[in-house]
């Protein structure tokens, strides 16, 4: 999709010929994020919509204890050390940002009085500064008032290299100015195309200056508040057992009237997705469970008892296969998959194209992922394909066979193709998860019919996703031909996500395999586009660049997108909860309630 | 069945007629039933795939989670793969792993237990420390380490499948010898003080002779029972390893693996878990009965 087409769509939204929601859906379909889509609209004068959510309770309290099951438990409660999503979710019980993203990617003020925009003068025309007005009358759990100083302190805390905060990048190249006690201004060195980053969403939670000021830099890890947070949020911590349980009681002085409805909250960790689903849907022991990646039939059979229901929340999680561009089986200078090598088989584009044809996405989506997944090839999108969701990928074993025949891969006596003495035999790894192993099996079988031998390998998720430089089974090493996992596009802006295909980000021994380009694909056009997109102020031009970058990746079969996954949550019947995948699902836990 | 026993009684005509081990084993009815069942299972997994030649990995989404029928006598799993074919194939792997790992555990355990039980003093203490150490070791990190260190080397040496097989047997057996060692040591401590051992010692029997001829046969009973239990443990442990991505590839349908895959579907497709569960149950039960029978048959005290 080109820039003009996006402009055309924005024009239609302006005229009312197209709904905001449809626009966001279309942007998602071309691999962008909902927050980016709504930012595009905002830049063109179409304000962020406020999602309607009926909050019926007329007073705070009276809801009793609400019991949550987050089977991946939180291990600490400082938002700026929360590398894992488990911590990032739980922390929203206590801390709040200035604004956060709702389910459809609309920016919603929380600790801000109003959203900055070009119209109200909050965002400067040239994109180099943003002014936030803070809400008045907000207090920390200990009674101290919340002011601009807390925001400035948070920025200072996170940007200090000695703190080792994972949010450092968000706060590093920005100057923060205090205008008065309830107004702050952010000044960027270069125009910032996607400005809702600092103080917004998961990376934007604000810390209390009066408590954290003694714990700067290297001392930050020792702060007692990392385990007993004092925030502005709707709940006050009463007990925290890392890796197991969080208990909290309602904040009586919460800054939004009549909230929260629940008197106390309990968040339990442990178990797995299936047991969590059972606890909400079948036995009704819990009110809510997050991330139920369980087969459809199981959810259905559990839901039959009517205790609870499953809700699917869209995000930008793409389950995809990655193809190694380097040779994982030859060691060069103490590392395998060195950038100086070429993959013995995948260097032939015909093999990559054939492989893409051998993935039966329709069957995988329908029979393995069910409701929670949609087949997608929609990383790739050219204008003529834009209207159709299903033309951009196909499953055709005969065609794959034809491609391989034409490219000179001949079947040997054992039925496996070979060319110039190289056998078409691949190792395919993925982290352990029932649905993934089934997908692997389906792919393997189609490949065997096309004369490609495939060995399946599974790696425990704890190892696969770890950053351990000593373990060659991590996705960062990628000592394997093919690997498959879900890239959660948790950042609302695809800029960061796209960096995983930059030449400068190639994961290798020299950087302890910490960089993000694990396929080691290198493409000059992509690099140029990325550089241009990082400074492009016009969000529409920028979006078009991202789409072109997506096309490059998929056309060259560096990745094979499989399933566009939704996150399944289990809610006890009657529980009303606004959720989101662009930030913590607890981003508006203050509004959770049961209808009277 | 009566043939061989007939002959033995003929050759030892002068001596008082103590029943031979085989005769005593035969009298243990459950042991005989166990032998027959286990023999059947082994024959099935060895010969079955030759007769029931449905491919083990043929995916058929139309027949997913099908109940047992003529086309699929044991039904199908959620990819529509034929369960009978998978069970027969997987049984070879599971039984081989179970028996081999049991042998490793029993041999190491007996060796350590016997040495500890016979040597008074520092060696005994050291070996028991070692046993305690192994019992206290967190198994999982150790497994990860071992597999990480040796998988690729072994794969290069003997090929991927055999490599994984050897590794699993070593790992599962190598971490399950401790209960056997403790049992053997305890047995040795009591038996070596018995009169008949003292008598042998007084007659000048060497240590080795005391152990092999007098103590070990008397200590064998509990060892055999512990061994039979460890067969079952090994079959299940293998499935844990597969789950962690350390065992056989995920598409190798070992019994443990099938059972593991099926567990979440218990309420909608009970047959899926039932048959592999039944197979493991029957195997373990038969081995246990056989162990029982063997213990009675081999117990020297019963020879009088």
From TrEMBL, chain A:
Quote the subcellular location field of this record: Periplasm
Q: What is its main location?
A: periplasm
| Example of a GO biological process term | peptide transport
The protein's matches in InterPro entries, at most eight in alphabetical order, are given as: Peptide/Ni-bd, SBP_5, SBP_5_dom, TAT_signal
- GO MF annotation: an example: peptide transmembrane transporter activity
User: Which terms are listed as keywords in the entry?
Assistant: Signal, Transport
What would be one Pfam family of this protein? SBP_bac_5
Record domain Solute-binding protein family: where: 107-462
Cellular component GO terms held in the UniProt record? ATP-binding cassette (ABC) transporter complex; outer membrane-bounded periplasmic space
What family is reported? Belongs to the bacterial solute-binding protein 5 family.
Q: What is this protein called?
A: Peptide ABC transporter substrate-binding protein
What phylogenetic lineage does the species belong to?
Bacteria, Pseudomonadati, Pseudomonadota, Alphaproteobacteria, Rhodobacterales
UniProtKB/TrEMBL annotation, chain B:
The GO cellular component terms are: plasma membrane
Domain ABC transmembrane type-1 residue range list: 91-291
Q: Which domain of life is it from?
A: Bacteria
Q: What are the entry keywords? A: Cell membrane, Membrane, Transmembrane, Transmembrane helix, Transport
Keyword Transport present in the record's keywords: the answer is yes
Q: Which InterPro entries match?
A: BP-dependent_transpt_permease (IPR050366), MetI-like (IPR000515), MetI-like_sf (IPR035906), OppC_N (IPR025966)
Which Gene3D superfamilies does this entry report, sorted A to Z?
MetI-like
Location of this chain's protein in the cell? Cell membrane
Could you tell me which PROSITE patterns the record lists for this protein?
ABC_TM1
Membrane topology per the entry is: Multi-pass membrane protein
Q: PANTHER family from the entry?
A: ABC TRANSPORTER, OLIGOPEPTIDE TRANSPORT SYSTEM PERMEASE PROTEIN APPC
In Swiss-Prot or TrEMBL terms, this protein is called ABC transporter permease
Q: From what organism does this protein derive?
A: Fertoeibacter niger
């Amino acid at each position: 999709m080109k820039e003009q087409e996006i402009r055309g769509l924005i024009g239609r939204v302006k005229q009312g010929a197209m709904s905001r929601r449809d626009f966001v859906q279309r942007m998602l379909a071309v691999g962008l994020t909902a927050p980016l889509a709504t930012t595009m609209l905002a830049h063109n004068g179409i304000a962020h919509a406020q999602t309607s959510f009926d909050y019926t309770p007329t007073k705070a309290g009276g809801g009793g204890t609400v019991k949550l099951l987050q089977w991946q438990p939180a291990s600490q409660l400082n938002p700026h050390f929360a590398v894992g999503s488990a911590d990032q979710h739980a922390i929203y019980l206590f801390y709040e940002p200035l604004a956060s993203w709702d389910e459809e990617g609309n920016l919603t003020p929380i600790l801000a009085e109003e959203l900055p925009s070009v119209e109200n003068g909050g965002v400067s025309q040239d994109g180099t500064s943003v002014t936030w007005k803070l809400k008045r009358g907000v207090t920390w759990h200990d009674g101290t008032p919340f002011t601009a100083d807390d925001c400035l302190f948070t920025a200072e805390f996170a940007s200090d290299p000695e703190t080792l905060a994972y949010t450092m990048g968000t706060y590093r190249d920005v100057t923060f100015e205090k205008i008065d006690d309830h107004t702050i201004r952010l000044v960027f060195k270069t125009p910032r195309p996607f400005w809702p980053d600092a103080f917004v969403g998961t990376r934007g939670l604000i810390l209390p200056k009066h408590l954290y000021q003694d714990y700067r830099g290297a001392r930050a890890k020792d702060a007692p508040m990392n385990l007993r947070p004092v925030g502005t949020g709707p709940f006050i911590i009463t007990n925290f057992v890392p890796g197991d349980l969080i208990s909290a009681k309602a904040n009586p002085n919460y800054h939004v009237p009549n909230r929260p409805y629940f008197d106390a909250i309990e968040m339990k960790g442990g178990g797995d997705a299936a047991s969590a689903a059972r606890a909400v849907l079948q036995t009704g022991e819990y009110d809510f469970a997050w991330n139920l990646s369980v087969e459809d039939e199981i959810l259905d059979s559990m839901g039959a008892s009517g205790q609870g229901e499953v809700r699917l929340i869209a995000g930008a999680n793409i389950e995809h296969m990655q193809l190694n561009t380097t040779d994982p089986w030859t060691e060069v200078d103490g590392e395998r998959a060195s950038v100086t090598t070429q993959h013995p088989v995948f260097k032939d584009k015909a093999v990559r194209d054939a492989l893409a044809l051998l993935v039966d996405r329709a069957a995988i989506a329908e029979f393995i992922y069910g409701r929670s997944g949609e087949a997608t090839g929609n990383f790739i999108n050219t204008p003529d394909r834009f209207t159709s969701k299903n033309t951009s990928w196909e499953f055709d074993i005969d065609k794959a066979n034809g491609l391989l025949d034409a490219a000179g891969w001949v079947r040997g006596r054992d039925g496996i193709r070979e060319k110039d003495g190289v056998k078409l035999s691949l190792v395919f790894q993925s982290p352990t998860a029932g649905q993934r192993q089934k997908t692997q099996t389906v792919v393997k079988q189609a490949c065997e019919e096309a004369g490609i031998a495939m060995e399946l390998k599974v790696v425990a998720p704890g190892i696969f996703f770890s950053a351990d430089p000593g373990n060659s089974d991590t996705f960062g090493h990628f000592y394997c031909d093919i690997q498959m996992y879900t890239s959660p596009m948790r950042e609302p802006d695809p800029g960061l996500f796209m960096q995983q295909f930059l030449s400068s980000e190639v994961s290798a021994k020299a950087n302890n395999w910490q960089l993000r380009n694990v396929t080691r694909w290198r493409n000059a056009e992509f690099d140029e586009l990325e550089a241009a997109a990082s400074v492009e102020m016009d969000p529409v031009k920028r979006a078009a660049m991202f789409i072109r970058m997506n096309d490059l990746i998929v056309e060259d079969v560096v990745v094979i997108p499989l399933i566009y996954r939704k996150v399944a949550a289990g809610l006890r019947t009657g529980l009303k909860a606004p959720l989101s995948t662009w930030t913590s699902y607890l981003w508006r836990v203050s509004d959770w309630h049961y209808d009277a | 069945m009566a043939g061989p026993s007939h002959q033995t009684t003929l050759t030892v005509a002068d001596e008082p007629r103590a029943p031979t081990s085989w005769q005593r084993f035969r009298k243990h009815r459950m042991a005989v039933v166990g032998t027959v069942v286990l023999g059947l299972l082994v024959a099935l997994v060895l010969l079955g795939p030759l007769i029931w030649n449905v491919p083990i990995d043929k995916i058929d989404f139309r027949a997913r989670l099908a109940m047992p029928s003529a086309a699929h006598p044991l039904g199908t799993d959620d990819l529509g793969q034929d369960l009978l074919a998978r069970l027969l194939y997987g049984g070879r792997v599971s039984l081989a792993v179970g028996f081999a790992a049991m042998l490793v555990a029993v041999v190491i355990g007996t060796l350590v237990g016997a040495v500890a039980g016979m040597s008074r003093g520092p060696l005994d203490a050291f070996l028991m420390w070692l046993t305690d150490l192994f019992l206290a070791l967190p198994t999982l990190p150790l497994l990860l380490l071992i597999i990480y260190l040796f998988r690729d080397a072994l794969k290069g040496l003997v090929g991927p499948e055999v490599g994984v097989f050897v590794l699993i047997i070593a790992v599962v057996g190598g971490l399950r010898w401790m209960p056997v060692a403790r049992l053997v040591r305890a047995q040795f401590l009591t038996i070596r003080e018995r009169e008949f051992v003292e008598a042998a010692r007084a007659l000048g029997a060497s240590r080795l002779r005391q152990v092999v001829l007098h103590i070990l046969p008397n200590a064998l009973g509990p060892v055999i029972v512990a061994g039979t239990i460890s067969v079952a443990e090994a079959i299940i442990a293998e499935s844990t390893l597969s789950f962690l991505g350390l065992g056989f590839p995920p598409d190798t349908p070992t019994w443990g693996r099938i059972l593991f895959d099926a567990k979440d579907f218990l309420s909608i497709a009970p047959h899926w878990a039932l048959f592999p569960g039944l197979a493991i149950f029957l195997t373990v039960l038969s081995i246990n009965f056989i162990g029982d029978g063997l213990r009675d048959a081999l117990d020297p005290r019963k020879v009088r």
